[in-house]
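Open question from group meeting: does this chain pack into something compact, or does most of it stay loose? Before anyone orders reagents, we agreed to write out a predicted structure and look at it together. Recording both the input and the output here so the notebook holds the full record.
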Amino acid sequence: INYCRKCPGISKCRKANPMLCTKIVYQGGVVDRQLVPCSKFLDRVMFEKQFQIRDFDDAWLDKKITELDPSKPRKTALEKYVKYVKEGVTDWIYLTGGPNSGRSFVAATFATDAARRGFGPINYINCSKRIGELYDLNKKDKEKFSREMDKLCECKVLVLDDFGNEYKNDFVRDAILFQIISTRASKKLFTIVTSDFSIKDIVTLYSTSKAGEVRAKQIGTLIKSVSGKEINLGELSIY
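Structure tokens returned:
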């Protein structure tokens, strides 16, 4: 009991029965002890269950928004996130910047904060990995493809990490990305995008044909309308 009172954190628990706490009970005239699940461990389980897909390192789960570098671009991103938390404003956040500038870290920090607040379901996907998987899944199992698409289109918080570096073709643009972006925009669902590319660059990347150029512009217009000005975190490697 005394060990738990000075809890070192669930990751550092060194008891013989880790993640279990001793509870003293009095039943039928007898004082006894019971082992019950650690409340902090249960909170952690519920916290992690907020994520349906989580494509970032476990070490980032413990990061908090108070740890973000206080630079102007990060403050701007944080202000938009706080408006979502406190006022329910679902304007998207579009983060650009050079490699290792902290785009993914900032997005993961917002996502974990949302998970602590019980804002799930939350999906944090690496586009270069997951979009290709969705494309392959459509050819193998259309029902499962539909379920996975619903998961991304309907979840309360979505992070599209490394957007623009995914596998590209007409099907990916029209049946995957456009569906996700248009559904979430129309339903006002909070979304964070991180990318090496500007929104204008994304339009160019997906303009694979005359018809494709129209759809690519539509995607760019949608993203611009719900996210406003892009937030450039710069070239400096911080994280």
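Observations to bring back to the group:
Strands lie at 20-27, 30-37, 51-54, 93-96, 122-126, 157-163, 190-195, 231-232.
The mean pLDDT is 91.
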